[in-house]
């Protein structure tokens, strides 16, 4: 474990807050969400999915989702049009492996294993994490769709076809019927007093 490497890695993570998810630009979104914003909500979705799926490790799923896009700090986010021409799998794996160097044996081994489980969907947690990653994208698409970006529907349709777990499918079905602003509609309280 090298403290200087750990410090540099933590600084590098700040790039994920600045890197925008590029696919949303194709849908006409001027200021899309960042990779870090995606990771945070995906991790929370993953935790919930893991508990819904029963006897899975929600902390492991959340951790997988918090680290799965770390390589994008160096190579950026690649949308599906770019993926038609450039395969980022190998470069992202190389970046991820380099980022792990010096973080300590436990972190290096565990995160490398988690990354592989996510990419290969080789464990129940890897499958749940991938579903959560896709679900987060669908939720973001629904927000953009409700804001008038009609082409965001394509993301929702593609995610719906890709989901594997029953829990993710249930959440997806309900999400499609819900406006992204519904969560606060019963929470708002008028604070003025009517003059007589």
Give a structural overview:
Helix 4 packs across helix 10 and helix 5 packs across helix 9. The radius of gyration is 19 Å and the shape is globular. The protein contains twelve helices and no strands. It is 65% helix and 0% strand. It is mainly α. It has one domain: Hypothetical protein af1432. The N and C termini lie far apart (71 Å).
Number of domains: 1
Q: From N to C, what is the helix and strand string? A: HHHHHHHHHHHH
Strand segment tally:
0
Estimate the global geometry from the Cα principal axes.
globular
Classify the oligomer: single chain
What structural class should be given to the helix and strand makeup? mainly alpha
Strand content: under 5%
Mean pLDDT: 95
Corresponding CATH architecture: Orthogonal Bundle
Q: Give Rg in angstroms.
A: 19 Å
CATH superfamily: Hypothetical protein af1432
Major β-sheet profile = none
Treating each run of at least 4 consecutive H or I residues as one helix, how many helices? 12
Please bin the fraction of helical residues: 55-70%
* CATH fold topology: Hypothetical protein af1432
Low-confidence spans: none
| CATH top-level class | Mainly Alpha
Distance between the ends: 71 Å
């Amino acid at each position: 474990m090298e403290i200087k490497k750990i410090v540099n890695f933590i600084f590098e993570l700040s790039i994920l807050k600045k890197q925008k998810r590029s696919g949303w630009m194709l849908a006409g979104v001027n200021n899309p969400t960042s990779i870090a914003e995606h990771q945070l909500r995906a991790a929370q979705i993953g935790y919930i999915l893991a508990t819904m799926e029963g006897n899975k490790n929600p902390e492991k799923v959340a951790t997988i989702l918090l680290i799965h896009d770390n390589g994008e700090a160096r190579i950026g986010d690649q949308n599906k049009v770019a993926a038609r021409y450039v395969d980022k799998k190998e470069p992202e794996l190389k970046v991820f492996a380099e980022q792990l160097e010096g973080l300590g044996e436990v972190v290096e081994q565990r995160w490398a294993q988690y990354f592989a489980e996510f990419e290969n969907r080789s464990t129940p947690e890897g499958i749940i994490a991938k579903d959560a990653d896709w679900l987060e994208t669908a939720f973001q698409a629904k927000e953009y769709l409700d804001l008038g970006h009609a082409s965001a529907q394509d993301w929702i349709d593609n995610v719906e076809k890709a989901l594997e777990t029953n829990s993710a499918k249930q959440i997806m079905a309900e999400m499609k019927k819900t406006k992204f602003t519904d969560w606060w509609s019963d929470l708002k309280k008028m604070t003025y007093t009517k003059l007589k």
